[in-house]
């Protein structure tokens, strides 16, 4: 069964997968490459690797399970446990899909890996190869707040970094040779002819800012003897020098003015090595290989000061396009900055552009645009660069937000509003007044008319929320529970923690040309989705363990899933499969019950059991209860019930023939289902020639 509210989130079907450089968002605020993560676990579990066809997987012990960011059935961000990891080699001749979105998110995955796509007021799953330019896919907007951890420095960082540790002894300091880990009381690092460097036990804002400046527009020399950074603003330079003075005692760096800029050089091998080890800053040329250090993601304050250092050094405020932009050659760094800003509630985009002057080079721009997000940046990021800060303040003082960014709007269609309004007997004027009251802002009559006539494709979240709350109030007043449920779904869309990013590019790629050898996937408990390169991705098949259809409903409504009761009717069919021992056939699996969710009556979820299992005959038999799904199909297709039953028999024939022929693989089953949709008559004629006598007679009744 599917646990579905606003979207269907399901367990892994083990056929969709991501390439190794896909960045996974963990619940602790860190971002890891799925390839690095999974390969490390495969090494650890090398003697416990299980296989299924060409797939390898590991069932993780409790202590090795980890949490990823996911989205629940109410479109709210959460975190759930990964219980298995998967990998497989790229198959011969296999092609992958590269999907890019308007905000710069990009992911490469298998053709069958599903996305969550917004379509006419509902959220549907769509495989990568079926995505089209213009589709709106779910992207994380507000991830859950990660734990705010202290950034404690691993003592092993200091092993042999200096000649001595300086340790207080009550009368002063004594030298302790640095042959390994520092004594607990050690305060400074010292070497012959060097200034004392403070031994840092916990990273603070100043050190995070220094790291941001160096990674932005500075460097550690390739021999590790000095640090250098270039400055074009005195206030920014003073902030950097002051921060350095907190860590190197009685030291004045070398400052050289070149006219248009000033170069600051710090000649401390100990301090340079300390920064390199703590933050993973490469020595020498780093433009394409640097990354956002995991340690600065430990808490939001460190992250804010690190980002301030980056933007002071290498960012700029573009007054013409009203944007704050950071440019880098490191794609990994650009995407992690995007995630870090997202954690602070600042929406940005990542664009890939050709680097002028370089034949094959590319650069990446992290762009913060829109007055709302620029205002958040000014509020949260403590810039020291006076001119950049002044430009930003001037923009915020003189420019006003207009309509807002697309991320703060949601797709809309007339089918989402008009049917509920008419059902509740509301005029457009009445709805406008009520919605404006609940939204706390004007929801105009013209906006509602434009939405209902399909002239508007997006709407402010606040306006949709006002409309949803207005509908709910009226539905409650008149006792229309179904209308209330429909309105509640609109509220979930308006208040969700995802935004619907527009697909701008869908292309087939050759994994061999990209150097991709393995593909990876995760089994995420409960919500069965996770964030890869910013985009919410699903898996392919879902199960819940329970003893009956009724118990399935209880499990859906209970922790940890907590699907709201009003959303249970979005679940269509529950199919119960049981494994048991048969005296003649041994251990077998059988479908024992097929039930439809027909709605809610009072406090109870209504189930229609339409098929039951007869163990004596080893077959399913119809209960005679009318099928809600069949009635809906008749209504929407215009077919009579007899025509629908005949169509069902045609499909039964195909399935029974595949059982007869032992056709079981995903690829083969998918092939014949596609054949049925392309030319059902031709496939049925083939089955007539190829099937058993009994099945042949059945085929002839429908061709």
TrEMBL record:
Gene Ontology MF terms in the entry: ATP hydrolysis activity; endonuclease activity
Keyword Chaperone appears in the UniProt entry: no
InterPro entries: Hint_dom_C, Hint_dom_N, Hint_dom_sf, Homing_endonucl, INTEIN, Intein_C, Intein_endonuc_central, Intein_N
Similarity remark: Belongs to the GSP E family.
Entry keyword set: Autocatalytic cleavage, Protein splicing
Entry annotated with the keyword Nuclease: no
Protein name: Secretion system protein
Domain DOD-type homing endonuclease: 210-346
Cross-referenced CDD domains: Hint
Any single biological process term in GO: intein-mediated protein splicing
